[in-house]
Structures
1.
Amino acid sequence: MPDPTVTAGPREANVVDIAEKFTHFTSHWSPKIIAQTSGWEIKLVKAHGEFAWHHHEVDEVFVVFAGELTVKLRGDSEVVLRPGQLYVVHRGVEHRPYAAAECQLILIEPPGVINTGEAGGELTAVDTWI
């Protein structure tokens, strides 16, 4: 008899252990892709210190998994995120993430988004799968 706690669908279900995935890397500001769905990528990022001012031509979703992240916005405003909180930076909005201590983030954005947007520079990373 089938297990009643397991639901089957047309595709194989893949459970991703987010905490375990964070143990696979130590680099800061270097996104790691863990899943794709309906035209979006789910990425993990360890943040520490200040990132570059930049913007994207797409929306970007920040979810704090552990730690605290401040998203600075042009015009002297900022948003502080703590574990379990989510913030959408809408396309075209210039922002600068900052973490006083290491912060673990989940990013949700379309494939091909460059982490530094149009700003480029030494913090530009190549997305990799883990």
Note: The helical segments are 18-22.
2.
Amino acid sequence: MPRYIERPEATLDDADTSIALPYGMDAAGVVKAVNDFYAYLHAINSAGISYGYARLEELLQRAAFSGLISEVMVRSLALSMETKVPGLARNLYPNGHPDLIPRAMYLGDSVQYGDQGVEVKAARNPASIQAHNTGSNWYCVVEFSCDLETQPVYEREPTIIRRVRIAYLLHEDWSFSGRGPTSRRTPTASITAAGREKLDKGLVYCRDGLTGYSLYLGR
């Protein structure tokens, strides 16, 4: 059986339960969301290889895989907060911002641009977090490692959620990157050093006791 089929497990021992989180979020819900992602990826890849397909990490482009992680985390975090007060719900507006919004605050739990809630971002490189919507808001940044280099492919390690950080970022914690007059690239903004420091203080989950952006391994 390929190594990447191994299913990791997140535990509350790797979480910081002392960090104050918004909207009734807690470390246990974050750990559950990480394990839900592991379960989903394990099920998809196990079924895929049985039919002769490559694992999902090879089939999807990098941005698409990051989006998948974000979506699974959003859905799981929303489910874990069904009994919380005020609690968060998944934003049902297509590509709405933020991803998680206070339950019943917006009609039908749907809003294109809301000023309350939590935006969820997944990134391999925590030093280059980017976003298209950069207003002052709560952000949940999920850092993961994905082995795309080991050969042969069946020896590749399973994808790991390394850290989850939650912090309130201001508009000035983002550095806007414009585009040329002929470019069709979507304008994006990158997080500043000050923003990264805020996220470090909100390190709610950290696998293997890793801390700090300097420990990013590039995988």
Note: Helices lie at 27-50, 56-59, 62-80, 193-201.
3.
Amino acid sequence: MEESPLKKTPEIIERIRELMEYETAGDPVNGTKWTRKTTESIVLELKKLDIAVSPNTVAAFLRELGFSLRVNHKKTAISGNATAEARENRDKQFRHIKMIREQFSSNGDPIISVDTKKKELVGNFKNNGTAWNKEAVLVNDHDFPSIADGKVAPYGVYDVTGNHGTVFVGTSHDTPAFASDCLGRWWKNVGRQNYPEADKILVLADNGGSNKPNSAGWLYGISENLCKQYGLSVTVCHYPPGASKWNPIEHRLFSEISKNWAGIPLRSIETMLKYIRTTSTKTGLRVKAYLVKKFYATKQTPTKDQMDSVNITQHSVFPKWNYVVNPI
């Protein structure tokens, strides 16, 4: 008699988790996860591993892993004559990122996912979510920035392989210089201790914000803070526009932080740092947090001579989204 799938639950869940590794997106606030794979396609891939289950059983396992069924929302504005090309480019970039990730993973080289979490007002403001309290916590009835004690930009670096997060809470502007400085700080404080033999690193980033691919300040900062400072070769792959929720940091780090401080007014930077540092999961996530008081001016652009010193090699696939910054 064939063994019941229920008796092999841990094995099946682990196999499904591996299949979802490069096919998962997630909401950074509520932790909802979803995938482009259908239950039928997962059934076929499990069959290749000699695991026979039904689509309904796969759906149950996906729910156990935190995935949810989602409906379509008409919220994305795109030009009608570019949709087919945009979809093809998006899928092509996803496939390219998957290939590069597999190369780095097989060699044991570090893979990090980076982004800036939603900027937060510091003060007695409402924080979405619920918390166990004897009575309701009273907060300001309006979220006016003018009455805040400050506004901070939490820049995150998530170690995909090590399941470790580092958040740099900046009190100034979220600029390319700030983002690249955070990468340098991460390697100095965390990365080189965890990967002492590494001479290259993969960075997964969104297509906008302080780490957007066409930012001279971002490219120059990587060159200065990682390549020249530590001799690292830095491969950067950007997710397509509108695909930021597929960036691992969103559903593996930011969503967990949001859940940890849900319903807690972030009345001080110390409170914010405390809840970031105490974020953890059953799968072993641990998080460090640092306060960055350095001032970063906006609209700062490297000079031509500075950019001439940056050694960049572009990939043949979407060269603006995929490139390597090398030491000189």
Note: Residues 1-6, 71-81 have pLDDT under 50 and may be disordered.
